Amino acid sequence: MSISEQARAELAELAGRYPVARSALLPMLHLVQSEEGYVSPEGIAACAETLGLSTAEVAAVSTFYTMYKRRPAGKHHVGVCTNTLCALLGGDAVWEAVRERAGADHDEVSPDGLFDLERIECQAACTHAPVMTVDWEFFDRTTPAQAVEVLDRLAAGEEVRSTRGPVVRGFRAAERTISGIDDDGLAGDGPNADDLMLATLHAAAERGVGPADGGPAAPSAAVEGRPQA
Amino acid sequence: MTLTPVLTAHWDEADSHTIGGYRRHGGYEQVARGFELGPDALIQMVKDSGLRGRGGAGFPTGMKWGFVPQGDGKPHYLVVNADESEPGACKDIPLMLANPHALVEGCILTSYAIRANWAFIYVRGEVPHVHRRLRAAVREAYAAGYLGRNIMGSGFDLELVVHAGAGAYICGEETALLDSLEGRRGQPRLKPPFPAVAGLYASPTVVNNVETIANVPYIVRNGAEWLTQWGTEKSPGFKLMSVSGHVRRPGVYEVALGTTMRQLLEYAGGMRHGGEPKFWLPGGSSVPMLTAEHLDLPLTYEDMAAAGTMLGTATPMVFDDTVSVVKAITRWLDFYKHESCGKCTPCREGTGWIAGTLHRFEAGQGTEAELGMLEELCAQIMGRSFCALGDAAATPFPAALTHFRSEWLAATHTPADQAFDPVAATVLAAGATR
Ligand SMILES: Cc1cc2nc3c(=O)[nH]c(=O)nc-3n(C[C@H](O)[C@H](O)[C@H](O)COP(=O)(O)O)c2cc1C
Ligand code: SF4
Ligand code: FES
User: Fold this and answer.
1) Structural domains of chain B in order of their starting residue, each with its CATH number
2) How many Å apart are CA B251 and CA B245, to the nearest integer?
3) How does strand B205-209 pair with strand B118-123?
4) Which residues in B lie closer than 8 A to residue A136 (C-beta atoms)?
5) pLDDT, position A218
6) Does B24 touch chain A (CB under 8 A)?
7) Is the ipTM of this complex over 0.90?
């Protein structure tokens, strides 16, 4: 495929955000993935041209990082954390179920092109173990059955929401968001914090402990969304 | 009481991630106060508070800021380490989802203190929702005049860029992070020179963890003394401690430093089946494991060091007796092997050797001689690698052997999955409280 004029302009826009343009290379490669579905030779060339680097220099960078795909990715990226904590708490079983459902293994795309499977490392969500990600949106505390259901629903074209709010939109859309080129309008989706992230406040409420931040307390009734006692 | 809802104080309000929610509780009021105090007084205040870095090493923050040469005519930079990838650590991600403006206000105050006009937040790539929340917060802060040129008429300019990584644990190491932020392969640099002298673009740079920087507005608001009301002389303040594993209520607990694991377990509802943990790690997979014997030790830098481990990220992972130590350690070594950047031989070759040998133990095919060989290998890597990832890779096994030798001996004849039913360890197992 070839990189569109608009995409070239966006690559240049990313480069313009830094005091030294080359700093934009990682976001630029994310944008290339959203355009091309992987880090294509054309995408590498466009980055090299924008930054005044050789294609070999850009390729050397892109191959260092696991998020960059060297072959066309499936429609949805599916990651299962199999680092120790998730693995033991059920991640290994989730991975087996996902692998069987998709008919693909680690770093492979399912025969129908829908799912791109990856055993992933710790996602900073161990409190929510075991975790799966689809297009890098979290599916917290996932069971094998729930994981398979998510894949089934995506295969059926249904809308699927991450347990943290945002709708799953495909690998390319996720890569565009990660590149930071523009606002996808989803920042407000989902709660600020789920029950596990609110553990401090739950434990504090049970023990009658108030805020310790030293700030002005707002009358809680005036605060929209605070659960009323 | 050791629960200290500071950073977490308002996460139960639906708009805590927005500028409106943040300002309702006094957010951004410290920017003007910081400008009044001036850069040197801010650095002194953070020094006096005793705040130590929350990224794992616990380096005194004010001292680090003080290393930045002043009047050197070079641009200075602030780089926030939001790469959170240490197995077990899950505190910066929730913080950025629920209270991103504390980080933004902290960036403004810190940049002003170290005289930086550019700040970067390097967020691991795999978390788009965090990117959204953080970018939205930065947009709001620009619109409100807290970022950009001549902030609030002070003459101080600051550009704040949210940057995306692309999947590499090593990029959490501060010098690898800087290379990555320069658009290169994320491999560590030789130290010295330290980043404070020659960091981003070879200019003076402060690299701090998300939670470290988010502490700053609260210290400026309440004063240096305020922080020292919690913790110990060497470990003052409070800490976001994510508790994960076989506890009834895993989650993020914000507590005073010096809180014990036993107290944390009580907050977390205890072990899922009652009783005590088989083993636990106070701060990530890169610190030596502890056992039930150590539940009453204060979680401070100094007490953990005295017990032969480290506080690290202070994000305990807790395992009960359904877990095979051999299997747990083997999986962690798979991780280090995968994440070794390949720059130096002890780590690149050593992690492969250790992981390969551990897999034989997991399959019940280790030999007693190999236990000694593994110890020897770890000792060879420790202190001989180019960066701390190598040391981290050499850390899990020796402690596990010390505490659970009989289990390693059993792994010379019985596979881990036979000795320990893998289903019993999962949260799906009977008796799991969910
Ligand atoms: C392999 C490795 C990974 C690291 N990952 C992180 C990380 O994800 N976040 C972090 O803040 N510090 C991480 N660190 C520590 C940083 O190198 C550095 O000490 C820290 O960002 C300094 O900030 P602080 O003083 O505020 O703690 C890591 C270190 C190593 C060796
Ligand atoms: S210790 Fe490992 S991660 Fe660090 S420089 Fe050497 S090979 Fe790279
Ligand atoms: S081990 Fe899976 S998210 Fe941390």
Assistant:
1) 19-227 (3.40.50.11540), 238-319 (3.10.20.600), 325-425 (1.20.1440.230)
2) 10
3) unpaired
4) 125-128
5) 59
6) yes
7) yes
Q: Residue B303 pLDDT > 90, yes or no?
A: yes
Tell me the three state secondary structure of residue B205: strand
| Ligand 2 pocket check for B350: Cβ under 6 Å | no
B 101-130 residues with CB < 8 A to A? 118, 124-129
Residue B433: its pLDDT value, please? Answer: 44
CB proximity list for A17: less than 8 A, separation 6 or greater: A24, B161
Which has the closest alpha carbon to A118: A93, A135, A142? Answer: A135
Q: Is A219 on the interface with B (CB under 8 A)?
A: no
Residue among B164, B167, B254 minimizing CB distance to A180: B164
Q: Output the pLDDT for position A214.
A: 95
> Tell me, what's the pLDDT at B241?
98
* CATH code at position A40: 1.10.10
Chain A with chain B: Cβ pairs closer than 8 A = 307
Mean predicted confidence (pLDDT) in B163-192:
98
Q: For ligand 1, atom 6, which residue shows the shortest CA distance?
A: B172
Average pLDDT, chain B: 97
B152-159: long-range pairs with CB below 8 Å, 24+: B152/B31, B152/B32, B152/B35, B154/B35, B156/B35, B156/B112, B156/B117, B157/B117, B158/B107, B158/B108, B158/B111, B158/B112, B158/B116, B158/B117, B158/B118, B158/B119, B159/B117, B159/B118, B159/B119
Ligand 1 pocket test, pick from B83, B92, B126, B174 with the greatest ligand atom count within 8 Å of Cβ, gives B174
CATH of the domain at A161: 3.40.30.10
> Quick one: what percent of chain B has pLDDT higher than 70?
98
pLDDT value for A216: 86
Cβ count near B297 (within 10 Å): 18
Tell me the pLDDT tens digit for each residue of A126-184: 999 999 999 999 999 999 999 999 999 999 999 999 999 999 999 999 999 999 999 99
3-state secondary structure of B133: helix
Query: What's the structural domain count of chain A?
Result: 2
Q: Identify whether residues A83 and A137 lie together within a single domain.
A: yes
Question: Are A102 and A136 in the same domain?
Answer: yes
Q: Does A16 touch chain B (CB under 8 A)?
A: no
Is A86 in the same domain as A37?
no
* Closest ligand (CA of B178): 1
Smallest CA–CA distance, residue B343 to chain A, in Å, is: 12
* pTM of this structure: 0.97
